[in-house]
């Protein structure tokens, strides 16, 4: 299995993370480390084929976690008396697509290869929609840009350029611009590509299947136009003379194009079921609420085409390591001899890589009344920090949680990294499904250090190289397991941690 070279030389790595003074490591920690390695070697083995939901490898991973929960003596919480909470998913992809563009009284023909269209369910046939051209579509008060001021996009097909406008600092990315337009009621948002060479690859990417929760409303209509397709539309609409510089002027406004567009998409759908694995450690007083631990078990599956030597995205760090950590935190809490006051739930979630789908399904149908959840702690991508890394947080800025984390860290002799830089990744992890509802949620540990996270994201992240051949600093994870056993007992005690009223 090919491993890419490290981005940063090891010496720099050591310099970035000052280590604690050398000292004897407790024997118990070495045991934890060995068990972590065992879980990770099982979950990231080639036999699990990258743990994609809806595949035999994914089912094997879910089965392993359920058997571990059973072995630990957790109470099944998945419904029907077992550990499995079904998560109904649907894979949708665009089959035949077509569009009918009528601009200034003439038909502009755009071939299916010159556009990408996706969204909706089954056979989608839109009405003839009004068309709005929005330039870059960047609304930015600081730059004085308000292209949509006084322009109604409701029910319209909105076309915007995909790139970043030159000379506008901090412009939101294309995805954020698209979401804002959909929120404002656009019936469809299409990006205009300007890079002719990159077009085939972009089109193929947009035509890849998407996965959604079966019970959710299907995604709205989005897509893209090739540079050549846009050129013909712009010519017919009399927009050819507009330059990129015109579109970042303060007085630039989006404009209705004289014409309509009607879209048709035949979606090919495949419904299937995956599972969250749910277990409970009973507290002395379940009426006092609950603490919830999360770690996603899924990964990307076979992520390279047939014939490539290594096709498997094993997801060793992302997130076999987080699941292993959750299993050992559960064991540590059980073996601590101290019974928590609040119930503690452990959920290995599915379909995180498809857009936090398992966590969203869990948040919609939580095993315990959402109003009773005192805190949610998520483990994702944990095996990147060595022993002694300062304790950092994603979710810092929630005073009651911050205070608990800092108090426990100090008691364990750990240094604290008070930065809130990791909050930038808040929406990219499962805890977001709960944080969105105002439930205190965080990630805590040595791995929330942004330098370490960025180094990993720039290297093996989402590649076949995130496999068992890379060095895994499991001593750091073992130390964080110990931290979380203490933190879990504190957060599960209403006398020591009270979530803010909501
Ligand atoms: Zn991932």
From TrEMBL:
GO terms for molecular function: aminopeptidase activity; metal ion binding; metalloexopeptidase activity. Pfam families: Peptidase_M28 (PF04389). Residues 276-470 form the Peptidase M28 domain. InterPro entries: M28_fam, Peptidase_M28. Keywords: Aminopeptidase, Hydrolase, Metal-binding, Protease, Signal, Zinc. GO terms for biological process: proteolysis. PANTHER family: AMINOPEPTIDASE YDR415C-RELATED (PTHR12147:SF56), METALLOPEPTIDASE M28 FAMILY MEMBER (PTHR12147). This is Peptidase M28. It comes from Edaphosphingomonas fennica.
